[in-house]
Design goal:
Bound molecules: flavin mononucleotide
Distance between the termini: 38 Å
Helix content: 25-40%
Radius of gyration: 22 Å
Order of helices and strands: EEHHEEEEHHHHHEEHHEHEHEEEEEEEHH
Structural class: alpha+beta
CATH architecture: 4-Layer Sandwich
Largest sheet: 5 strands, antiparallel
CATH topology: Chorismate synthase, AroC fold
Number of strands: 17
Number of helices: 13
Strand order of the largest sheet: 8-7-9-15-10
CATH superfamily: Chorismate synthase AroC
Strand content: 15-25%
Length: 390
C-alpha cells in the first residue's frame, strides 16, 4: 500500500488530526522535532493574529513508543487554541443559531474557496467552506511531512526550503549547506539576514494599504541517488508527483524544476547538463535540470521552485456579492495574514519530504527502518559507480 496520510479538522473547530500510515518501524521521532516543524509553519512577518495565538498543542494517539515509530499508524492531534470561543458556532451536533449568525460568511472572497465551495456543497453560510479550505489545514500536513523527513534523514536525504521573493522584492538564493540552514531558522525564510529588512518593509507597506502579498520559494532535496521515481508510467514520474504535492498547498499557483520557465527561451546547449565521470562516479558539472531527468532523480540536488499568489483575504475587500441580501458587497474580511510565503515554504518542505518518502517506500519497501536503510544503501552504492568498475 505504501505511505499515506489523511487529515481532518477545521480552522476553528476542536483541532486538527493526521493519521500517517505506512512508516517503517524504528524511525527515531522526538516531540521537539514535530513541535519545531509546527512552530516554523507559524513563522513570518505579516502573519495575522491567528498565527500568534496558535500554539499547536500536539498529542500523539498511536504509532510511537519510546521515541520510535512502531509500524502502526501514527495518529497526531493538534488542538486549536481559541476553540472555546467558537464552541457554539462550530458545534458538530447543534449549533447555536445566534452564534452561527454572528460568524456567518455570506460575501465570498475573490480568490478564496468561498464561492465555488458554497455552490458545490450548497452552503449559503460559506463558513462551512472556509473553515476547511483555510490554510490551518496545512498544520497536520506539516506534521506528516516532518515524520517523512525523519525517515529520509535516516537515508541521508535532507529537505530544505528558502524564500526567494515577496511582493516583487527578491532575496538571494541559498547556495551551500550553511545558507539553507540559515534560511530554515530565519523568520522570513531567507538565507541572508541582510535581505530581511527590505522584505519586512514591503510587507509593512502592504499591511498599511490593507493589501496582501505573495512571493516565491525554493525547495531543495539533497542526497537522493539517481533513479528515484520512474519514467515508465505517467503517474510514477517524480517531477509530476512533486508538482502535484506542491500545487496542493493553498495559494500555490506555479511550480518549476531547475531552470524551469527560463529554459523555454534558451537553446538546448545552454540548458542540458553535461555527463562527466569523475573519481569513479557519475557526476554533472551543472544542475539546470534541477536534479530531475525523465521523471527520476538524476543524483543532483532536486530544486523545486513555487509561486504563491497574494493572500485573498484583505482588509479592503474586493467587490463581491452578498448571497443573503442578494446585493453587491465587499468580500468578507476575516482576521488573516498579509503575507504567508515563509509559512507556505515550510509546508512546501513538508510536502516535498512526504512525496520523496512515498517514492522511496514504493521503490524499496520496508516494514523496518533498518531493512529499508540496508536496501537503500546497497542501491545507492551501486548507482553511484554503476558500470564504472570492472
Ligand atoms: C500557510 C498559509 C497561510 C495562509 N493564510 C491565509 C490567510 O490568512 N487568509 C487567506 O485568505 N488566505 C490564506 N492562505 C491562502 C488561502 O488558503 C488560499 O488562497 C485559498 O485556500 C484558496 O485556494 P487557492 O489560492 O489555491 O485557489 C494561506 C495559505 C498558506 C499556505
Amino acid at each position: 500500500m505504501g505511505l499515506r496520510f489523511l487529515t481532518s479538522g477545521e480552522s476553528h473547530g476542536r483541532g486538527l488530526l493526521a493519521v500517517v500510515e505506512g512508516l517503517p518501524a524504528g524511525i527515531p521521532v522526538s516531540r521537539e522535532h514535530l513541535e519545531r516543524a509546527l512552530a516554523r509553519r507559524r513563522r513570518g512577518f505579516g502573519r495575522g493574529g491567528r498565527a500568534a495565538v496558535e500554539r499547536d498543542e500536539l498529542e500523539v494517539w498511536g504509532g510511537l513508543r519510546d521515541g520510535r515509530t512502531t509500524g502502526a499508524p501514527v495518529g497526531i492531534s493538534i488542538a486549536n487554541a481559541e476553540r472555546e470561543l467558537w464552541d457554539e458556532a462550530m458545534n458538530p451536533w447543534a449549533v447555536n443559531a445566534e452564534a452561527a449568525r454572528l460568524r456567518a460568511v455570506t460575501s465570498p472572497r475573490p480568490g478564496h474557496a468561498d464561492l465555488p465551495g458554497g455552490v458545490k456543497f450548497g452552503h449559503l453560510d460559506m463558513r462551512a467552506v472556509l473553515e476547511r479550505a483555510s490554510a490551518r489545514s496545512t498544520a497536520p500536513r506539516t506534521a506528516a511531512g516532518a515524520l517523512a523527513a525523519l525517515m529520509l534523514e535516516e537515508l541521508g536525504i535532507s529537505v530544505r526550503g528558502a524564500v526567494e521573493s515577496i511582493g516583487g522584492v527578491t532575496a538571494r538564493a541559498p547556495e551551500c549547506f550553511e545558507d539553507w540552514a540559515r534560511a530554515s531558522l530565519s523568520p522570513l525564510g531567507v538565507a541572508f539576514a541582510q535581505d530581511e529588512e527590505a522584505l519586512r518593509e514591503r510587507i509593512a507597506r502592504a499591511d498599511e494599504e490593507g493589501d496582501s502579498l505573495g512571493g516565491t520559494f525554493v525547495i531543495s532535496i539533497a542526497g537522493a541517488p539517481p533513479g528515484i521515481g520512474s519514467f515508465t508510467e505517467w503517474d510514477r514520474r517524480l517531477d509530476g508527483l512533486l508538482g502535484q504535492a506542491i500545487l496542493s498547498i493553498p495559494g500555490i499557483k506555479g511550480v518549476e524544476f531547475g531552470a524551469g520557465f527560463a529554459a523555454a527561451g534558451l537553446p538546448g546547449s545552454q540548458v542540458h547538463d553535461p555527463i562527466v565521470v569523475d573519481g569513479g562516479r557519475w557526476t554533472r558539472p551543472t544542475n539546470r535540470a534541477g536534479g530531475l531527468e525523465g521523471g527520476m532523480s538524476n543524483g543532483g540536488e532536486i530544486l523545486v521552485r513555487a509561486a504563491m499568489k497574494p493572500i485573498p483575504t484583505m482588509r479592503r475587500g474586493l467587490p463581491s456579492y452578498d448571497v443573503a441580501s442578494r446585493s453587491p458587497s465587499e468580500g468578507h474580511a476575516e482576521r488573516g495574514d498579509v503575507c504567508a510565503v515563509p509559512s507556505a515554504c515550510v509546508v512546501g518542505e513538508a510536502m516535498a519530504a512526504w512525496t520523496m518518502a512515498c517514492a522511496v517506500i514504493e521503490q524499496f519497501g520496508g516494514d523496518r527502518m533498518d531493512d529499508l536503510a540496508q536496501r537503500f544503501m546497497l542501491y545507492r552504492r551501486r548507482a553511484e559507480g554503476w558500470n564504472l568498475h570492472a
